[in-house]
Design goal:
Blueprint lengths: L5 E5 L5 E2 L15 E5 L38 H7 L8 E6 L5 H14 L4 E5 L4 H11 L6 E5 L3 H11 L3 E5 L16 H18 L2 E7 L11 H5 L2 E7 L5 E9 L7 E7 L2 E4 L3 H6 L9 E8 L2 E13 L7 E4 L3 H14 L7 E7 L11 H13 L7 E3 L2 E2 L5 E2 L4 H10 L4 E5 L13 E5 L2 H8 L5
Parallel strand pairs: 4-8, 4-9, 5-6, 5-7, 7-8, 15-16, 17-20, 20-21
Antiparallel strand pairs: 1-2, 1-3, 9-10, 10-11, 11-12, 13-14, 14-16, 18-19
Length: 458
Amino acid sequence: MAKVKTRYVCQNCGYISPRMLGRCPNCGAWNQLVEELEPQKVIAPVTPNFAGETKQPVKLSEITFNEEKRVHTGLTELDRVLGGGVVPGSLVLIGGDPGIGKSTLLLQVSGQLEQTGGQVLYVTGEESASQIKLRANRLHVQGKELFIYPETDMNAVSQMVQQQKPDYLIIDSVQTMNIPDLSSAIGSVAQVRAVTSQLMTIAKQQGVTVFVVGHVTKGGAIAGPKILEHMVDTVLYFEGDLHHNYRILRSVKNRFGSTNEIGMFAMQDDGLKEVANPSEIFLEERLAHATGSAVVVSMEGTRPILVEIQSLITPTLYGMAKRTTTGLDHNRVAVIMAVLEKRANILLQNQDAYLKATGGVHLDEPAIDLAMAMAIVSSYRNLGLAADECFVGEIGLTGEIRRVNLIDQRIKEAAKLGFQRIYVPANNEVNRKNQHQIEIVGVRTINDAIKKVFKNQR
């Protein structure tokens, strides 16, 4: 067997050095040279594909399209986030904070997948087999075709995959796996990149569906090189507050489905339970007629959810007004407050503003502008909004209410949850053929919206 050679590549400019240097001689960047495996030279001009046939260019018009066959995981919320189920031969990366429930989710999924007739190989680099067994007993996972393999050597894992020939491979976690040929430390950039490349080869050449757990940094991004997220087929983030039992699984990349799709779970003693209607969870503790509270119908992927936006406007005690947001974009809130001050003559420059999206969800689409504005005006004037009203609309810098997408789905979801009135952009084309059991109020400007919402209030 040929000796494996390594090299050091600058992550800033791509300069290649045969030895480790503190500073790149080419671009002058410090601590950017990372050890990588030196690629082997390929003698053949063309390479055969997985079926053993030589690759040749094919006309686009002659390519036949076969819809990807999906396997249901047994968890409807996970299937939704994945785009309808697991695609065989795909590589799925799941990231999240420590203790959020990534291992619990994958162990539950493993138990569901082996019940459908598939064989699962669960490779754990962080826990022993007995620890996995204790968790499996708590989750009521039998695991007749679920094999636990405590190992961190990626070469040994590849050999075991060749021997076992599983349908699904779970890696928990990618930062604990290593390739002995690399002298870099476990979890380093070079190790993570090489391990992921080898897992991609297993997934694509052997048709094994691979789930990979990835740690996250303090900033919330998956630890390791950014190329890690580019290499995999799907990237899922498991979000939530350790002080609450609700968890949100969010898709940020999916080659086989839509992005920004979310699934919601509740962490209980016997594992994760699916939440079929997240809107009820987000609104269940809302106070009726509370000031500074407005409900928005937001789209998360293809799912409409209703979320309460809360605002607290108080006179500032210092020279500079304070702006604090939770679950909302700070710059977007600043723009909305500037528009209200300029176009609606609401003096906010001497007011502290605290805004949040309840339920731990993060909202970043333009359709939440109108709800934020109404929550700010409600708190500023100390006037409560009706409990059966909700809002959808984007606000422009001139104070106009601009149209949003998927308006019919939003209206239908609001009506299903019992809301009696929804304020939408007047220019939005609403399908009148749908008999919505809700009053639809069109607004053109921010002043028009304020007048209609607070017409019966002083």
